[in-house]
């Protein structure tokens, strides 16, 4: 989880500019796939001999189906994230950090309300410029959250004098927690590296999990793993829309279905992109030219459909907004209303078109995803006990997490749970 930054120790977000390329003594052959490209830029110490790391190597290696599903889920986003990691000259292992954080589940939300693949809590997300409003949650926007997460990691890396293990621990537990642990060890005359610090249990397992994943992907054959093939080319492309647009309109222009567009843009909570931005969409790479061409020819009046609502006697602005599942401010803005006064007989423009419940249906379709929570296993946790606690079945717990019914849970392991879901 991206822990809250300490106000006095966080630097202002740097202006992003293209860094100079790393010097190369010999021009290497092009990588065969994205995994090989990642291996070439791995930079963290392995630490495979440490018991915490070796245990997770055994666990992930013993659950190849689970790992493969996570990597398949991540596939559309791997190329652009690795591109940004390389652009900033960061260790390629950071590509695997969302596996630890969220299993690359775009809609996952923790008990601390951390959201998205990088698991930003609301305050940290806002600190790094991730908008969270009625229309949009930037923490779930893969592009925006990736930029924010890497910026945060860069700041932590400078704060902890270039020590990546302390950086990662601080990303999880907060830089104040790590700094206090360092001061405590220093006062006691003990080593102040990550492995000797007294940190929260989750943080003690956090770095070993990442290092175990890196070890497995660095040498999958030795560990008997077969990785899903991922070509070293973009599978999705970011398209600037130039303003608000309905998802149905954008999907039609791109030649894809709305569900595909929503899956690639999980930060969007409504039927259209936010009026105030951000104005971008991730689309399949081969459909980006069609979307750009369609946007260039699209009449401004066709970007968002509208319906007219005739105000009846006794109606008030808040009630009309609630009927159409809109914030009152949205109605004020599109209709040029300064206060709350409306008159019977006048017409209001309602964004979204269709019937009054269309936005509600869109939200209902996402209901199961919105209820996802993450549970970090503690000593003594069992599948049966967790099923009782969250009101779900053991069968669902095993299905959601690729577990065997008799499998023993490990402290630090993360489970995905959908409270309130009907038993399958």
Q: What's this model, at a glance?
A:
This is Membrane-bound lytic murein transglycosylase D. This protein is mainly α and 424 residues long. It folds into four domains: 34-223, Lysozyme (Orthogonal Bundle); 236-302, no CATH class; 306-351, Membrane-bound Lytic Murein Transglycosylase D, Chain A; 369-417, Membrane-bound Lytic Murein Transglycosylase D, Chain A (Roll).
Q: Would you spell out the secondary-structure blueprint of this structure?
A:
Elements: H1 34-40, H2 51-62, H3 64-87, H4 97-102, H5 122-127, H6 142-159, H7 164-173, H8 175-187, H9 201-218, E1 236-240, H10 247-254, H11 258-264, E2 280-284, H12 288-297, E3 306-310, H13 317-323, H14 328-335, E4 347-351, H15 358-365, H16 367-370, E5 373-376, H17 383-390, H18 394-401, E6 414-417
Antiparallel strand pairs: 1-2, 3-4, 5-6
Helix pairs in contact: 2-9, 3-6, 6-7, 7-8, 7-9, 10-11, 10-12
Notes on the protein architecture:
The chain is mainly alpha-helical and 424 residues long. It has 4 domains: 34-223, Lysozyme, CATH 1.10.530; 236-302, no CATH class; 306-351, LysM domain (Membrane-bound Lytic Murein Transglycosylase D, Chain A), CATH 3.10.350; 369-417, Roll (Membrane-bound Lytic Murein Transglycosylase D, Chain A), CATH 3.10.350.10. It has 18 helices and 6 strands. The strands form 3 sheets. It has a two-stranded antiparallel sheet with strand order 1-2. Helix 2 crosses helix 9 and helix 10 (247-254) crosses helix 11. The protein is globular and about 75 Å long. It starts with 33 loop residues before the first helix and ends in a 7-residue tail after the last strand. The model is unreliable at 7-21 and 354-370 (pLDDT under 50).
């Amino acid at each position: 989880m991206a822990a809250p930054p300490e106000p006095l120790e966080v630097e202002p977000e740097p202006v992003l500019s293209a860094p100079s390329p790393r010097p190369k003594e010999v021009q290497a052959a092009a990588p065969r796939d994205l995994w090989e490209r990642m291996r070439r830029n791995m930079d963290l110490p392995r630490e495979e001999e440490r018991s915490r790391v070796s245990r997770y190597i055994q666990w992930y290696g013993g659950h190849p189906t689970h790992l493969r599903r996570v990597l398949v889920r991540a596939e559309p986003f791997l190329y652009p994230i690795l591109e940004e990691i390389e652009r900033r000259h960061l260790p390629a292992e950071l590509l695997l950090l969302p596996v630890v954080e969220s299993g690359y589940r775009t809609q996952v939300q923790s008990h601390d309300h951390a959201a998205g693949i990088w698991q930003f809590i609301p305050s940290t997300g806002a600190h790094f410029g991730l908008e969270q409003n009625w229309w949009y949650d930037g923490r779930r926007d893969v592009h925006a959250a990736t930029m924010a997460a890497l910026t945060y990691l860069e700041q932590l890396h400078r704060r902890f004098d270039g020590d990546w293990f302390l950086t990662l621990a601080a990303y999880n537990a907060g830089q104040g927690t790590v700094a206090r642990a360092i001061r405590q060890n220093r006062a006691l005359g003990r080593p102040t590296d990550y492995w000797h610090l007294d940190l929260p249990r989750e943080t003690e397992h956090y770095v070993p999990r990442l290092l175990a994943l890196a070890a497995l992907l660095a040498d999958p054959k030795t560990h008997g793993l077969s990785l899903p093939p991922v070509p070293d080319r973009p599978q999705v492309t970011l398209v600037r829309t130039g303003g608000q647009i309905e998802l149905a309109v954008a999907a039609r222009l791109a030649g894809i279905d709305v569900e595909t567009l929503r899956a690639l843009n999980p930060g969007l909570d409504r039927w259209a992109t936010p009026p105030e931005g951000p104005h971008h969409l991730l689309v399949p790479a081969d459909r980006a030219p069609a979307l750009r061409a369609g946007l260039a020819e699209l009449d401004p009046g066709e970007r968002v459909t509208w319906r007219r609502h005739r105000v009846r006697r006794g109606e008030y602005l808040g009630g009309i907004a609630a009927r159409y599942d809109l914030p009152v401010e949205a109605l004020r803005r599109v209709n040029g209303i300064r206060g709350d006064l409306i008159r019977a007989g006048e017409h209001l423009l309602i964004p979204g078109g269709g019937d009054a419940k269309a936005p509600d249906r869109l939200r209902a379709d996402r209901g199961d995803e919105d209820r996802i929570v993450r549970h970090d296993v503690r000593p003594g946790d069992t599948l049966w006990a967790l099923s009782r606690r969250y009101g779900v079945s053991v069968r669902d717990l095993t299905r959601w997490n690729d577990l065997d019914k008799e499998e023993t849970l490990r402290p630090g392991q993360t489970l995905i749970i959908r409270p309130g879901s009907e038993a399958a």
